[in-house]
Amino acid sequence: MSRRGTAEEKTAKSDPIYRNRLVNMLVNRILKHGKKSLAYQIIYRAMKKIQQKTKTNPLFVLRQAIHGVTPDIAVKARRVGGSTHQVIFFFSVTPVDPPLCHPFFPPLHLPLQYLILSQPW
């Protein structure tokens, strides 16, 4: 038995404008060299352009985009007997599950992506 206390579970903070954890997760993914305010500016500018162009809620568009990036199936290594097999498992159909979709985000901190997000549509 451990002598230490149990660690407190950290909850992801939401961003100040949209009050959404998904936006904050995307900001943290874009973050480069600790410039969080610049990452927020890029995301908010992109969200504003999405709203102007599509006339819909930008959070809805963001959720759709992340749902499109998230794979439907994946493989896990299972040890059976003495050998390891790749076993297919399906993701459950739920609203966006950040731990599952986060590894499948494209690397948005590249300069090309910065140029794409900051260009007028």
Could you give the topology of this structure?
Layout: H1 21-30, H2 36-54, H3 58-69, E1 73-80, E2 83-90, H4 98-101, H5 111-118
Helix pairs in contact: 1-2
Keywords: Ribonucleoprotein, Ribosomal protein
GO biological process, one term: translation
Protein name: 30s ribosomal protein s7
Describe the protein in words.
This is 30s ribosomal protein s7. It holds the Pfam family Ribosomal_S7. With 121 residues, the protein is α+β, with helices and mostly antiparallel strands. The chain has a single domain, classed as Ribosomal Protein S7, CATH 1.10.455. Helix content is 44%, strand content 13%. The chain is built from five helices and two strands. The chain has a two-stranded antiparallel ribbon. Helix 1 crosses helix 2. The longest helix has 19 residues. The model has no long low-confidence stretch (mean pLDDT 78).
Oligomeric state of this protein: single chain
The H-level CATH homologous superfamily, spelled out, is: Ribosomal protein S7/S5
Can you tell me the CATH architecture?
A: Orthogonal Bundle
Share of residues in strands? 5-15%
By CATH, the topology is Ribosomal Protein S7
Domain count, please report it. Answer: 1
CATH class: Mainly Alpha
Annotation field: number of helices = 5
GO biological process, one term: translation
GO molecular function: RNA binding; structural constituent of ribosome
GO cellular component, one term: ribonucleoprotein complex
Family: Belongs to the universal ribosomal protein uS7 family.
Short description:
This protein has 121 residues and is of the alpha+beta class. The chain contains five helices and two strands. Strand 1 (73-80) and strand 2 form a beta hairpin.
